[in-house]
Amino acid sequence: MHYEDEMDKCPREYAPYRSTLDECDRALAAKELHENEDTRDVSIALVREFIAKHPQIVRCRTDPVFLLRFLRYRKFNVADACATLEGGMTFLMRMRTLYGEEVNTFHPNVQRMLDLDAIVPLGFDRKRRMVILVRVGAMDPKDTTALLQMRLGALVINTCLEYERTQVHGTVWIVDCSGMTMAHVGAWGLSEFHRTNEELRNSVDCSILPTTYGGEQSLKQATDNFRNMFETQTKWFKLEEQFYMDLSVSAPGTSGRSARHSQRNEFPGEESMVGSFRKLTVD
């Protein structure tokens, strides 16, 4: 994996793309995400140009795996991918303004959340999806604020997204509501319920379920595996702490008006839009 020592939104030389996907992964990406050699290389170049020309973005990752998060999420609609990247960075800047250092991945309060084993990736299932276990009762609402719960979730999913297979195949979330109190209500949304462990085992591979849920691996083993995943990606997280947008600068499309008072469109303005997106808009 290629790492950059410094955050540079317009480096003299960009890191090349080195795929970690096998033939099965690439076939699904082509079918579901409209990804192939042509769309991928051109799209990455366009997003890099967008970052380089964006007046508010000062420091941002430009490595392929990071940019492919947004391109794959938006099925290689480059305009939408750029808008999602811009929106995510803007949100991060505002969170830093509101909450300070506590939003940083390596803040002691955030790292303390890891010891709760409250949100743990269990591994890839037979459909190559990353399965993530959420144990709501493990988070004491008296000691863990909504911000810390959100930061833990972000840490977990961002760790998983550094693996291309997660970007292509997605995730499955198992939410264990045992121990939930009224103080927990509203913290999580569920799209599918399994009333018994047997129903759960029929839906999720037993090989990656913890033994407490009738599976074959211990929760400690899953937690240790996740910590290894996180430590492998530590350098990326440290790099992302350098992300910076200057929101005092006029945003694209605001005609010089203050970014704070301007009415922003959903997508970036034409000043920062580059290349021809029409050929790459597939949705």
Automatic annotation (TrEMBL):
Pfam families per record: CRAL_TRIO (PF00650)
Region (Disordered): 251-283
InterPro entries named in the record: CRAL-TRIO_dom, CRAL-TRIO_dom_sf, CRAL/TRIO_N_dom, CRAL/TRIO_N_dom_sf
Gene3D superfamilies (UniProt xref): CRAL-TRIO lipid binding domain (3.40.525.10), N-terminal domain of phosphatidylinositol transfer protein sec14p (1.10.8.20)
Recorded GO MF terms: phosphatidylinositol bisphosphate binding
Domain CRAL/TRIO N-terminal residue range list: 63-88
One GO CC annotation: membrane
Protein name: CRAL/TRIO N-terminal domain-containing protein
Protein species of origin: Anopheles culicifacies
